[in-house]
Design a protein that fits this description.
alpha+beta, 3 domains, about 450 residues, 13 helices, elongated, DUF2357 domain-containing protein
Amino acid sequence: MTLLRGNVRGNDTGTVLFPYPKREEAAGPARKGFPVRPRSGHDPATPDEEEGAEALRHMNEVLARIQELEGAIEDPSDTWGRLRDAWKRAEDVAEPKMAEIVRQARGMLPVLRDLEKRIRRVLRRHRELTPLDRVQEMDRTSMVWLSRQPGRSTAERAGSSQRILATVRRENFDTLENRVLHAYTRLAADVAREWTREHPRAKDSARYKQVEAFRKACRMLSRTLSDLGVMVASAGVQPNYVLMQDRSYREVHEGWLRLLLRRKIEDDLWAWQAETWTDFSVLSIILAIDELEEAELVAQSPILWSGEATGGRWFNQDRPIAVFWLRKTNRIVEVQARPERPGAMLGAAQAHVALRISDPIRADLPRRVAVWTPHAMRRIDLEDAVQGAAQLLDQIQPLAQTEVLRNGLIMTPARGAAAEESAAHGRASATAIAIGPAGEDLSKGFQAVRDFIRSELNEVAT
């Protein structure tokens, strides 16, 4: 995926992103040592599996912060205020995130209890040796069998056991709707277990208790269906009349499809986590600017939310995504995410996010702040990163003609240790912030973003 296209002194440039492999090794280009996504329904048992489970937990937390934008954009007049409140709640790990399994735990538990009392069954015909006094029905095959037995009467042909081959009806629970129910309970129990494993500190919360009770109910019903001989439906089955018309079975089918879609989405997100992380970083910068007392939102790009992630992205927007006016310092601040025309300096810096700060009255050159959003499965060395970024910014200064670009910001996953580092090289400087999507990592990291934004805007004012 091409993140940035530019032109530096007549030469076309670009920044390309490769997806994360689903295995430890991958080719084109060669990559090794990647954490492996944990198997569904299995608890991690080795250090490598623990690392993969932690990577999945981090991915889901970032996803939760992005998905909170869906509810925030319902009120365009206060989108960023509502999103900021949601992120503030995420700083408390005792209040776990909302997720699809949480919604289903709340709405599907009564449905499962209803179906448990009336699991649908059908009467199916079988041929078996039946005592004469219990014979109720015979088909052509049974009649042929009886005619071939020795004897002149039915009693003689029944032999000493007094049994003949007849058609009997037996209860059978292995129907399509019960197979879908069995598949749903198994999948929901696995997803619920993953969710509770990711939130060990939230055991006293109402959401955790709901999900745990739902997981136990799913496991119990799954064992019941297994004992009744019900098979497990495969994905993609065509719903029958019962799945479409019976309310409870229909809700189970719809819930099953949503969880299957979640699995598909996770496959895509695992490969393109870097894109999701970029959106997370952009939103955090917007929230930090919006918090300023002098900041007034004067323009906002329409945000088009997608029901399904594509290439790790849940929403699309025009450019810039947001424009703020700083009343006291009289500055215009644009938040540019994935600009179509980055310019020579931003293209040379290989940064596909930037702040553009200008004065609407004075004729000064606009000033840009490059923002890099490197995503890594393991925590990167902040000190080494800022040294390299500051050196790069200093090296590209001869390209400055129509704008100023001297400062940069690196936003990278904290991986359990929020931190901040800064470095200068010549006339350029860079700051690296390790921020997390929840808990203390989010609280400390977001505070560092606030401090950086304030320092940049104050520098422009002077």
